[in-house]
């Protein structure tokens, strides 16, 4: 069995998601819009983990996980996908905020081991911003969402390990992960001790204008296949398989490390090991970005 839900992934008093000091707190996952009209996003810099997923038309969407810190607002919030349910099972029964789902997927979300928090269920947790047009202006008040999900699971080990970097690695100044209609570039900044995030060729910033930076970026090679569900125009949503095993590239401290990931079951976390020795691969403490790409795409992207 994977160590995902059984051991404390960090010493007492530290977040198993970031390796930094944090109180024990419930988990909130939020589906966040990522088309150009939705940027800059609000509250993304406060997330413990940011997952990058491919959606219809080769575009991207983000799934941000919060526990250590709760910003006043998060968004813009968008709709859920089938593969979110498998991804979120490793967190136990988290609160899950999203703007809605396809009609046939809705009962599947309701039956999943989580606390669904769409606007129809917790309307007072959402508000519309005035600076953008719908649907890119729906925002969440995280504290209200968690108040409505009082049974949400507390943050626990999902397989991440934090500590000194492994030996080896290749000096890397920049890495780009690509989807058919989106790309993410991570540029190493020694001054910020992390990877500066760019989206579609433009610097990714917070709502206050600060650059997004991630101490650790995981480019995880997975199988991406059509989901069982499609939109009103007949386009099937991609389904990202987050269980199984495959290659990965871990970026930290200005280096890229070849890695292997394993997640035998949805209820467990993901173990990352060095490709050469099979030893646990430590992340740098702080926010972690996980970018899901097709398995064959893991090898490229380094600059």
From TrEMBL:
Annotated DUF3048 domain residues: 20-151, 177-290
Record-linked Pfam families: DUF3048, DUF3048_C
TM ranges: none
Record protein name field: DUF3048 domain-containing protein
Species this chain originates from: Streptomyces chrestomyceticus
